[in-house]
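Protocol step 6 of 9: fold each sequence in the batch and record its structure tokens directly after the sequence line. For illustration, a two-sequence batch is reproduced in full.

Sequence one:
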Amino acid sequence: MSQLEFEKPVLELEAKIAELRKVSSDDSLNIADEISRMQNKIDRLLAQIYGKLTPQQKVQVARHQERPHFKDYIAGFIEDFTPLAGDRNFGEDYALPGGMGRFRGRSCVILGHEKGSDTESRIRHNFGMARPEGYRKAQRLMRMA
């Protein structure tokens, strides 16, 4: 896992929790209170760190390689997803995927932004830069919704 510089204190605490869990499983010691206390500290630290990010740090988070992609959100939240392609005028823009599906049982139209995860997919998705046909497709799907 690649880490950002400002996340190091959190990752150190998470490593300590992993060590405590390992010790706990080896010796059958009950150290759940200590783990709970450290987890609460991690939660407070995360809120503090991410509440005070500089503009440069926000860009680092937005461009992080392990950030979820459109397909991850679809797989995690949307049932019966049917992708819809093209603007019905020129062609398909892979930087703006969309389609229909169900979220918590309700029918919906889903639009997303995709820049790709490796060189080949980034080229296919035009590095996340939408073209006019992508915006026309987005308008079409929004009217459909």
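Sequence two, same batch, same settings:
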Amino acid sequence: MISKMPAGYLLMVLLLVPESESKSPASNERGLEIISMAKAASGGNAWDRLEIMHDVGKAILQTGEVLRYEHWGDLRTLRTRAGSGAGDMFFDGSAAYKCQTVTCDSRTKLDSTEMRGAAYLNCFGFFFPTRFPASFQYKGTRVDGGVLYDVVEVSPTGLPAADIWINHQSHLIFRAIDTHGRFHAELTDYRKVSGVMIPFTEVSDGVTISSERVTFETAGAVSFSLPAGHQP
């Protein structure tokens, strides 16, 4: 999924196809149209009935070290939970924490805006502009590796903006780049799960994140709060 981990790639050579990048109402309308096409190509209305996305897999570091992970994302609220065996990370929709122990009796507070921004991308929040208001500025086309992409700058209200690269032919999302250069993620190996297309491989800053299993669960299947007795 997008931005499970800090991103930033070795970039391929990019060729800019000249085209206007004006931030006009027409540009926003075109950007929303392209995002809508991406949603349609990825499952369309099937996305609207999904609640909790649950994926399990491994992250392969540049050193070759392999780390296991498990991640839950609430597509309705952007609440997040992620674990790697040494405790979990929680974002309950307003506050975020990283637990140093499984029982979470030792924890640190995380930046809730950054967590919500990452969750917005992980949960494909741009597919739900009514649920999560945003602007969608069309930035023209790019060519990378001989493939043409439409680029839309998505700016969710109160969260950092990101450029979303969408394959001009298949309309599947290929790349997400934070406009401030904090992450750069590429998505491949799309597979259909519960009627929607999910990328099972993400490459970010030399780290390959490989999902082994992705399922969708109903609300209440997992807690996004700190363990009982450890509430802030």
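Proceed to step 7 once all outputs are recorded. Observation for sequence two: The first helix runs from residue 25 to 41.
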